[in-house]
Amino acid sequence: MTLVALVHRTHNVLAQHLPVTPFPARPSCFLGHSPGKPHRVKEHVVKKFVFTAVACVTAVSSAMIAVPASAVEIPTLGGPTVLASGLFLPLSLGVGAGGKVYVSQNALGALTRISPDGATSVIARANPGDELGAVSVRNGTVYYSTNTQDHTASALYSLPLGGVAAPIADLYAYESAANPDQVNSYGFVDLPQSCLDQFDPAAPTAPVSYVGIVDTHPYASLPLEDAVYVADAGANAILKVSYDGTVSTAAVLPAGDPIIVTPQIAAGAGFPACTAGFGYRFEPVPTDVEQGGDGWLYVTTLPGGPEDDSLGARGAVYRFNPADGEVQFVKGGFVGATGLAVSKRTGLIAVTELFGGPNGTGQVSVFHPTLTDRILQIPVTSPSAIELAGNSAYVTTNSFVADATGAPQPIGKVVKLSVRLGGD
Question: What is the value of pTM for the model shown?
Answer without folding.
Answer: 0.85
